[in-house]
């Protein structure tokens, strides 16, 4: 096979390998991102509960104020009752007392209701705080793993870059420019094999003349349809 063609095949393999590092790095970083998002969402949920708890506290304080007011009212009515003279006056005071007692009871029930909600919210908050602790631990582990994984990717990448630089140094400048031009649009399918007399870049059948030139492998042959560099795949 033509030496230049062999170099082109090798160069296109290096370029492809270098490009394949990008999704690998992305997938590693995605795990980290997903876990961080989970942590953030849990913290937001806790902040929401805190807001609810604050609101409940205010409602309880308000209701407790009402309770003192109703209790004071009942006392006041009782005092008035002891001084009441007429039947009509007593009756009116009794009614007043009854209403105040009902209001007091309703307020006490309201306090119970609010406390129940408060207990539920507090329980949910405690559960979420456990989740936060778990995710935080997980995050520490993931960060350690990621840093070692990224290091090994970086090492591999450096090795390939070194091989590529060495190869480029040995290559003919004109052929290199020719390859770079094709690579601009064909990316990692700039140099493709021919299988069953078809270009494996555009998948179109190539004519007999081109095909036999590819088989000979003496020149650099491009696909008549798409312009990619062709080679006959040697069986491995
Ligand atoms: Zn083609």
From TrEMBL:
Keywords: Coiled coil. The keyword Isomerase does not apply. The keyword Acetylation does not apply. Residues 198-230 form the C4-type zinc ribbon domain. Residues 25-159 form a coiled coil. This is C4-type zinc ribbon domain-containing protein. It comes from Campylobacter majalis.
């Amino acid at each position: 096979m033509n030496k230049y063609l062999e170099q082109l095949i090798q160069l296109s393999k290096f370029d492809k390998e270098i490009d394949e590092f990008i999704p690998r790095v992305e997938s590693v970083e995605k795990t980290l991102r997903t876990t961080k998002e989970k942590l953030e969402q849990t913290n937001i949920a806790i902040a929401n509960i805190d807001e609810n708890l604050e609101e409940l506290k205010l409602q309880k304080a308000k209701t407790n104020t009402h309770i003192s007011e109703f209790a004071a009212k009942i006392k006041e009515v009782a005092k008035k009752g002891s001084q009441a003279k007429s039947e009509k006056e007593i009756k009116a005071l009794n009614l007043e007392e009854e209403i105040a007692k009902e209001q007091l009871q309703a307020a006490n029930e309201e306090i119970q209701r609010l406390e129940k909600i408060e207990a539920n919210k507090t329980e949910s908050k405690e559960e979420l705080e456990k989740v936060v602790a778990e995710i935080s631990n997980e995050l520490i582990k993931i960060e350690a793993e990621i840093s070692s994984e990224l290091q090994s990717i970086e090492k591999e990448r450096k090795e390939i870059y070194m091989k590529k630089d060495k190869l480029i140094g040995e290559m003919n400048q004109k052929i290199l420019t020719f390859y770079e031009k094709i690579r601009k649009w064909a990316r990692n399918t700039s140099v493709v094999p021919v299988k069953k007399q078809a270009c494996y870049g555009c998948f179109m059948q190539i004519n007999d003349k081109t095909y036999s030139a590819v088989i000979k492998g003496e020149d650099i042959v491009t696909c008549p349809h798409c312009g990619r560099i062709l080679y006959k795949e040697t069986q491995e």
